[in-house]
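--- STAGE predict ---
source: upstream dedup step, 1 unique chain passed
mode: sequence only
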Amino acid sequence: FNFGWGSIVPNRYLGYVMGSIGHLVGSLTVFPLITRIGRRRGMILMFIGAATFFLLAILDIKLGKDTNWTLESVCSLIGVIFISGCLSGIYLWTAELAPTSHRGFVFCLTSSSCQIGSFLVHTSSTT
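--- STAGE serialize ---
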């Protein structure tokens, strides 16, 4: 499988490790952030952060003469932190929209569909 990290960062395995660390940081920081500033403001901050870094990734700027790192690769790795935080917060919101009697089922359905969808997106986009 190629999930795109090989084309974003110079070393594919370094990209996977850094992407995994970004997901971990995003998942662990969203809940204290939501507790401190509130759910709505925390999610707005995560969405604005993700949008900002992914818009900056459009610029084609090389970071240094002797390196293969670009602004796209750095912004993509930082943007993963915000996207992971958004995803963790959406789990909370979706589970709270359902009635209490169906909350567990809705949470499991949301989690399963997210995992299946993330797998299908990567397998269908590779050529």
